[in-house]
Design goal:
The complex is a heterodimer of chains A (115) and B (111). Chain A is mainly β. In chain A, 0% of the residues lie in helices and 56% in strands. Chain A has no helices and eleven strands. In chain A, strands 2, 4, 5, 6, 9, 10 and 11 form a seven-stranded mixed sheet that branches. In chain A, strands 1-3-8-7 form a four-stranded antiparallel sheet, with no helix packed on it. Helices cover 0% and strands 57% of the residues of chain B. Chain B has 111 residues and is mostly beta strands. Classes of the chains: A mainly beta (115), B mainly beta (111). Strand 10 of chain A pairs antiparallel with strand 5 of chain B, so a sheet runs across the interface.
């Protein structure tokens, strides 16, 4: 069983569309994260939720909105997609709210391409 | 030249062999991370290092800050160690969240 799963794995869409990426973890972790990896391979945190509560909200456009229906799920909704949103988005989870990468389990990534 | 370079890109070895994967970086960092990605896609953080050496089971990670170099060693390798191993550094040095990833080393351990 995959510990952290993301859907879809690939997403190709037009500028201006609204899309969602789903993330689920079956590890029983309390904290989940969304990271964005750009073309230069930089991985930057976007959001973190602990037990459905937002604890980290880095500087990202308001078009990005995380939603956590329960502590096993953290979905990412993106409105009015722009070309610059093209990237690989990684979901991760950890047992507690670690503020570093260590101890986090990552999903396989969702490659988003905005045309 | 990439800020984080890994070698080798691909490594095939027999079960039981001692494995070394190297990582060199050219930027200032606050920490270096080793991650493991299995064929199923999931990525697991193995180590976070800012100095010295860490050991977890058969895995050993070392870092030399002066030389900007880190190594990941696997002792008594096993086919289940087959995965992609990724080196990533935290940059800029005051951030633990912005990471630069290496290209990864694909390791195959044959029984």
């Amino acid at each position: 069983d995959t510990a952290v799963s993301q859907t879809p794995k690939y997403l190709v869409t037009q500028m201006g569309n609204d899309k969602s990426i789903k993330c689920e973890q079956n590890l029983g972790h309390d904290t989940m994260y969304w990271y964005k990896q750009d073309s230069k391979k930089f991985l930057k945190i976007m959001f973190s939720y602990n037990n459905k509560e937002l604890i980290i909200n880095e500087t990202v456009p308001n078009r990005f909105s995380p939603k956590s229906p329960d502590k096993a799920h953290l979905n990412l909704h993106i409105n009015s997609l722009e070309l610059g949103d093209s990237a690989v988005y990684f979901c991760a989870s950890s047992q507690d709210g670690v503020r570093t990468l260590g101890g986090q389990y990552f999903g396989p990534g969702t490659r988003l391409l905005v045309l | 030249k990439n800020e984080v370079e890994q070698s080798p890109q691909n490594l095939t070895a027999q079960e039981g062999e001692f494995i070394t994967i190297n990582c060199s970086y050219s930027v200032g960092i606050s920490a270096l991370h080793w991650l493991q990605q299995h064929p199923g896609g999931g990525i697991v953080s193995l180590f976070m290092l800012s100095s010295g050496k860490k050991k977890h089971g058969r895995l050993i990670a070392t870092i030399n800050i002066q030389e900007k170099h880190s190594s990941l060693h696997i002792t008594a390798s096993h086919p289940r160690d087959s995965a992609v191993y990724i080196c990533a550094v935290s940059n800029p040095p005051d951030s633990n969240y912005q990471l630069i990833w290496g290209a990864g080393t694909k390791l195959i351990i044959k029984p």
